């Protein structure tokens, strides 16, 4: 009940230790704190906190409109609700290198286990859209150096995302990734790779963990976890997937309501009240007050 009792520094150490094994860690995007609990309950290794989801949730496009305060606030809400490590999307770091440093410390205070900073210009866009632009290498490296220097917990994972692949091709992206590692990146997020052979090539070129972004309706094919494991990927995210699923179901539900005036036929698709209460450990609150949970829920 209430919040996770695992301190953030322990989640970070555990995340590092698991990454060091070389296994593939699966991080679905938690679109709210409740979904983070479901991800944990199902047995995934971590949760991802997506910038695209945060902005969409606010009804905004993912073009760098959200502020550090908003991202940190949502990160804290999600991270404290799960024992799992959380990896958060810090977009371009919210400004100049000194802003990046403050971003890192603020997100560290929010309790995340890691964050990624990308090399796009501002205004940024989804990495799977056409027409992206990236900053020059020196600017990208300065962001990562500032990030690595700013953390107070050495286990906070600083991941560098490069969007160069879609602009200058795979070789340029690999060169950028190598330079980002030399600048202090603990892991690399090569955005919008075209196929598995490209993941293999990045894997061969660098020694740090690499992330695969299995976002739907984008530039990458949706590879299975087995395929990604086979080419040596260490972290896979499905950043927006749970939101897409939930919004798809919500839309169909509203259509049903309009058409028939009742949601009765949709009950089987809904999370049951009993399952919701189980997920939030409603009964556990009887520790404080035995009159809190003294009812039965019919299935
Ligand atoms: C991973 C990502 O940065 C995100 O914000 O979740 C997005 C996902 C998306 O828009 O599909 C991305 O740029 O790939
Ligand atoms: Mg993003």
Automatic annotation (TrEMBL):
InterPro entries: ICL/PEPM (IPR039556), Isocitrate_lyase_ph_CS (IPR018523), PrpB (IPR012695), Pyrv/PenolPyrv_kinase-like_dom (IPR015813), Pyrv_kinase-like_dom_sf (IPR040442). It catalyses: (2S,3R)-3-hydroxybutane-1,2,3-tricarboxylate = pyruvate + succinate; 3-hydroxybutane-1,2,3-tricarboxylate = pyruvate + succinate. It comes from the Bacteria. The keyword Metal-binding applies. Its cofactor is Mg(2+). Pathway: Organic acid metabolism; propanoate degradation. This is Methylisocitrate lyase. CDD domains: ICL_PEPM. It is an enzyme of class 4 (lyase). The lineage of its organism: Bacteria, Bacillati, Actinomycetota, Actinomycetes, Micrococcales. GO terms for biological process: propionate catabolic process, 2-methylcitrate cycle. SUPFAM superfamilies: Phosphoenolpyruvate/pyruvate domain. PROSITE patterns: ISOCITRATE_LYASE. Catalyzes the thermodynamically favored C-C bond cleavage of (2R,3S)-2-methylisocitrate to yield pyruvate and succinate. Keywords: Lyase, Magnesium, Metal-binding. GO terms for molecular function: metal ion binding; methylisocitrate lyase activity. Belongs to the isocitrate lyase/PEP mutase superfamily. Methylisocitrate lyase family. Signal peptide: none annotated. Its EC number is 4.1.3.30. Gene3D superfamilies: Phosphoenolpyruvate-binding domains.
């Amino acid at each position: 009940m209430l919040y996770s009792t695992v301190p953030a520094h322990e989640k970070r150490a555990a995340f590092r230790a698991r990454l060091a094994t070389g296994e593939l860690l699966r991080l679905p995007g938690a679109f709210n704190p409740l979904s983070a609990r479901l991800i944990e309950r199902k047995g995934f290794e971590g949760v991802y906190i997506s910038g695209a989801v945060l902005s969409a949730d606010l009804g905004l496009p993912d073009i760098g409109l959200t502020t550090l305060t908003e991202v940190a606030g949502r990160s804290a809400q999600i991270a404290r609700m799960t024992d799992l490590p959380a990896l958060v999307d810090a977009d371009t770091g919210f400004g100049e290198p000194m802003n990046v440093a403050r971003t890192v410390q603020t997100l560290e205070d929010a309790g995340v286990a890691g964050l990624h900073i990308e090399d796009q210009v501002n205004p940024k866009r989804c990495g799977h859209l056409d027409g992206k632009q990236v900053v020059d290498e020196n600017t990208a490296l300065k962001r990562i150096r500032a990030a690595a220097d700013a953390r107070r917990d050495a286990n906070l994972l600083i991941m560098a995302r490069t969007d160069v692949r879609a602009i200058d091709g795979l070789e340029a992206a690999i060169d950028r990734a190598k330079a980002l590692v030399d600048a202090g990146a603990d892991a690399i997020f090569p955005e919008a790779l075209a196929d598995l052979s490209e993941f293999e090539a990045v894997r061969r070129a660098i020694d740090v963990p690499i992330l695969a972004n299995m976002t739907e309706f984008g530039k990458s094919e949706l590879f299975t976890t087995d395929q990604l494991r086979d080419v040596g990927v260490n972290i896979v995210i499905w950043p927006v997937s749970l939101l897409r699923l939930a919004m798809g179901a919500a839309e169909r539900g509203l259509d049903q309501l309009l058409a028939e005036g009742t949601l009765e036929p949709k009950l089987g698709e809904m999370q049951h009240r009993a399952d919701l209460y189980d997920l939030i450990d409603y009964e556990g609150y009887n520790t404080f007050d035995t009159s809190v949970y003294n009812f039965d829920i019919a299935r």
